[in-house]
Predict the 3D structure of the following.
Amino acid sequence: MRMVIQGGRVIDPAHQTDSIADLFIADGQVAGLGQPPGGFIPEQVIDAHKHIVCPGLIDLCARLREPGQEHKATIASETRAAAAGGITTLVCPPDTDPVIDEPAVVEWIRRRAKFAGQARVLTLGALTHRLRGEHLTEMAALQEVGCAGVSDGGHPIASSRVLRRALEYATTFGLTVFLTPLDPELGNGLAHEGQVATRMGLPGIPVAAETGMIARDLELIRDLGVRVHFGRLSSSRAVELIARAQAEGLPVTADVAVHHLHLTEMDLTHFDSRCHVRPPLRGLRDQAVLRAGLASGVLTALCSDHQPHEPDAKQAPFGDTEPGISGLDTLLGLSLRLVRDGVLSLPALIERLTWGPARILGLDCGHLGVGARADICVFNPETDWRVEPGILNSQGQNTPFLDWELQGRVTYTLLEGHIVYEGEG
């Protein structure tokens, strides 16, 4: 299939491209920008005037609720939601059921994603069996079947000795380790430790639950030289620790979930269980520093931290509800709101959603260079829309952003040159 995406504003941060140009696609790859390759005759033309054309978004943390969990959400339904949101690559953490600690689970997820054909699904292998923090997995075998890295899967390893052994083992195979900085004991609460949690009678999660783990992990990284990515930072002090480590030359990166840039602990005041997340929503200063860290590049990527739940998972008393937000449908719209708020420019934002995550994964994607896979998002940045249950594509409707007015709607998503989503712009 030969295709031209015509007249759009092409933004490719990896190549510092930001111009009105035609993008040419052939055989699932980018064939040219601006001028067609010799003899190029398109079979399809996409009119992208007044639209943004950029690499497909890469989401570093999206739980798809397969295999085995009793949820309506499936790999098929959630990859459809991803495609509708301009996301072409999803990274699935290993905390599935069963845990991604054996090659057979990786192969099963890959087959399901390939059959669905809506988005590329990458898996992270578990650092320890069943994510229990005791015995190391066969990381070499997980790498051989295509795991993009290894992770604690949101279950931080309490034992420093076990973690050190895991990091050493991962270093042997050149694997990037994805860690969740949340102390298992200090993090066993419901809300940010502060006046709001105290007033509401909710057990608090102190910032030290995050920063204490980061400080420990950084010392191990300093000793071993292993590449580590810290997922979903929530506090200003955590950003400061990562910035200092990067200035020292340590091989560390970090991301932030988009909801932490728009919500704070104040959104809990009516016991809104849709705002029950882990790590918890923190204070206004934390939010401001997270935004600044994203703008400066200390935080290399922005993710959805997608966790779809059945309705009853959020309808119990606050303390009995499941943490997590369904975020695939709103990732682009909430991210574009950061441009409107003056946090960072549109090209910088797109970098944090494409080329930034690709570099963390060590993959040659997230850009529009000639020969690159034609994973492409085309969206109208001026289209207004309201977040309503009827228009959400994910099976998970558990979002605190219902009734929010957002800007930016995807009109086309291409996966390796094939249109996997077409909407109204």
Observations:
- The radius of gyration is 21 Å.
